[in-house]
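ARCHIVE CARD
SHELF: 3
SLOT: left
DATA:
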Amino acid sequence: MGTNAAGQADINFYFDPICPFAWMTSKWIRVVQSQRDYTVDWRFISLRLINSNLDYDSHFPEGYDAQHTAGLRLLRVAAAVREQHGRDAVGPLYAAFGARIFETGPDEGRGYGWQGTPELAADALAAAGLPASFADALDDASRDIEIQAESDEALSLTGKDVGTPILHFEPPEGVAFFGPVISRLPDEEQAAQLWDHVVGLSRFPGFAELKRSLRERPQLPSMGVPAQEAGRTEDWHAGSRRLKK
């Protein structure tokens, strides 16, 4: 696989930087990328914008509004970077965001929305080799039009009863799905096997869905789950542990 004749990537990966499951799936994708010849276009989907019609107090656990808003703030930075440095700059920036959000220890005590601070954005930008001045875009709500359009694009490919990540396989003709949602990072052999199975499903035009809402907490320091341990099983309604539908 590789960039096709139309200039499309092999996968369009729609992510919100605040989503731990999108991060875990992206880690798996990067492992397989190191083994296989294929390309990824990292695109935006904002949990805050796609849930803008909901009352957060009644639909989500405490803190979700602040966390989803932090994800939107970071996407504004990513949009500014993409505008100035091109699409190839998004993947390294997302990797830098994720390393600081999910790989640095439990979230407890940091306060809701800490992920969207100028300090974190500037640190991630520096790690990605980008000017810290892009952190000014955190508050640039004019970027939300672009992020909303890309979020709508993702949902137009799957339908609305989904979460993040959304993967579009072999675009533009290929099919898109929510997921795969994984809670543990496969080893290199398992990563390739999982990739082959997922691509196999995506290439069957009649395949629609495999789904369950029970999930392990992701095997990430931010979730308090050490490597080699399985997180406790929780029921995630539509991917977000909603209190009610």
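SLOT: right
DATA:
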Amino acid sequence: MKSALSIGAGVAVITLWTTVLTAGVVIPSPVAKRGIVKTGDEAPNFQLRDMEGRLVALSDLRGKVVLLNFWATWCGPCRVEMPAMEELYRTFGRKDFEILAVSTDAQGVTVTRPFQQENHLTFPILHDADFRVGLTYGARTLPMTFMVDRQGIVRHQIFGARDWSAPEAQQLIRLLMKS
């Protein structure tokens, strides 16, 4: 008898929860729709504005190796890795390699432009102020980097800051360029 009562109560709770959901009382937050991009997945396409307001689409870079980095000006480890990313950017030609630094700063260009100028950054900085692209990729921490191969497949997911000027980083880029 206990089992039937428990099952009956469970059905009642599920029915009540379903009613609440369908009545529109419970609205899922954007976090509930977070994507989880894994190694081997096709990198979800997106369009974001750069520092000059131009739309940049990931799909436009097909055929290049792309270092896709989610960061913010207020993030200490992000600030630390940026000069090494610039060094890496200057090492490889634009024909085969691109960096997209996706800022999650809500203030956009107001804070990223002074940061870019202060650090002499030449790679593209895009703005994802509402963190929609970050959620799509499942970027849970900053910085978070996705290495995308020439075919648009995520080959590496890197949590935290890295020394992008290290020989290992350059070797990783060269390896991806061969694929």
